[in-house]
Amino acid sequence: MGLDMLIPAPLLQAVFIPVLIAPITMLLGRKYGRKVSWLNFVALTYSTLMLLMVGLEVRSAGPVLEVYSMVPLANVNFGLLADNLSLPVAVILNLSAVALSVFSGHYIDHRIDVLYNGNKKYHAVYHTLFLIFATGILGTILATNLIILYLFLEIVYIPLYFIMRFFGYVTKERVALMSFFWGTLGTTFFLVGAMLTYMGIGSFQIFDMPTLVGTSVVDLVVFFMLIGLLIKMATFGFHVWLPWVHAEHPTSIAGILAVIVGLGNYVIARILIQQLYIPFQIYSTPLMFLALVTMVYGAYLTLAQDDIKRLYACSTISQNAYCLLGLASMTSIGVAGGVFYFLSHSLGKTILFSIAGILVFRTGNRDMRKMGGLASKMPVTALLTIMGAMILSAMPPLSGFQAELIMFIGIFLQGTFTNLTSFLIALGGIIATIFTVAYTFWPVRRIFFGPPKIKNSNSHEIKEAPWSMTVPLLMLAFVSLLLGIFPSLVMDFLTAFAESLPLG
Question: What is the total count of domains within the chain?
Fold first, then answer.
């Protein structure tokens, strides 16, 4: 018996159950305050369970496609697809949303106390927007239509704007507008590519796009979509907005914002590599070079920071470029490893950004120069920070090691069999990992070890964060450990996807 007979429309449920719960969250949040975060937890956990059940079907019988409606005008299908690429990405990113839904309870309660004197209506606002946020991400991953994908991308940025506007830090209004502008600019370029696709083949369906090859518009489609995605990914030259946005938004969504930035890697794999490999391959070496420059420049910006939130923001610029380097290698191993690295980075960065939120929550401070010796008072937080640093630094036995190893094997294969330039870029990427170790463990030493620098007069009590903030992060660290020990849990899917591509 197929999955569709046991559970009706599991992908549709996974995407839209959070939206259906959102009005209830809005209603109950006004009465119960931060406790409503548990309703979000239930909704997002249910979505994750739906995805895991679909995963069993994908593993045993192949892709699961759900088409619910058809708009004859412009050939717009509303369809959702779980396959060897979208399924693992959807599961891991939704797990991050589950963790942050619980983490948000105490964190946003603190922000509301500071900003709005504890007015419970703002709990309703935040947690409702959070659910819409998560829906946008999941819809982007599963969409089978360019217009639907574009709409889900826009859905992401609408709640993001209001969350930053209402709950951000310094200059939150300006930063919210900056985030919305750059996000919309990126999606606008993508939309131009989608419209050109329709002009070329009369369809917005992603899996019709190979018929674009040989048409007069295919090169323009690749160009506009790529520029739009590079803007969203904050690569060098398009990066100026990210440190500001990441530094000033509420840290309860920081991990998801890092996911949004990295989601461009997924779209590149889904559309530009899978569907438009032939016209896209001319960008391979230039993108590898751009990725290397972004890695080094992002590391330089990171090492110059004293603000813990801004440090992790700048590191996102560098880390995201690693994923792009793997994809740009245009080898099966490199592409699979690049997507795996994106998922591992999402886990690690969600942990570290959340740690920054815990530090602000407990110390009222973001400046690492004013911290030190906190390991004795916050041992679990210190452990989580070390584990997050290990993930990003690719240290075994956590997932970052396996992901980076697989990815660089593919990158070196590209350089070995094509040209010396690519080989040297790959070698540069390996050397750049030294910077990652430096900027991920440097904060650990400054914050948690050495002499204490926070004065007793600080108005915040310095102690371990509530379990509702630390346990979700421990769960994500455990997922990373599990993927590090058993990488086949993800790589079986990603390898099958990559091997279906016309790559080396």
Answer: 1
Dihedral sign from CA coordinates of 447, 448, 452, 458? positive
pLDDT digits (tens, 9 = 90+) for 373-393: 888 889 999 999 999 999 998
What is the residue range of 333's domain?
282-504
How do residues 5-52 score in pLDDT, each as one tens digit? Answer: 467 889 999 999 999 999 999 999 888 888 898 999 999 999 999 999
Q: Where are the beta strands (DSSP E) in 60-152?
A: 64-71, 76-82
Q: How far, in Å, CA of 39 to CA of 270, rounded?
A: 33
Identify whether 322 is part of a domain. Answer: yes
Class of residue 46 by CB neighbours under 10 A (exposed 0-12, middle 13-18, buried 19+): middle
Q: Please name which of 301, 398, 307 lies closest in space to residue 347, comparing C-alpha atoms.
A: 398
Domain annotation covers residue 403: yes
C-alpha–C-alpha distance, residues 183 and 260, integer Å: 10
- Give the tokens for residue 446: 């400054």
Which pLDDT belongs to residue 250?
A: 79
**Number of helices (H) and strands (E), helices first, in the chain?**
19, 2
Of 49, 21, 150, 88, nearest to 486 (Cα)? 88
CB 182 within 8 A of CB 241: yes
Amino acid at 341: Y
Q: How far apart are CA 308 and CA 374, in angstroms?
A: 14
In a domain, residue 336? The reply is yes
Output the six-digit token pair for 134.
């998560």
88: in domain: no
Q: CB atoms < 10 A from the CB of 138, how many?
A: 27
Cis check: omega of the bond before 8, within 30 degrees of 0 = no
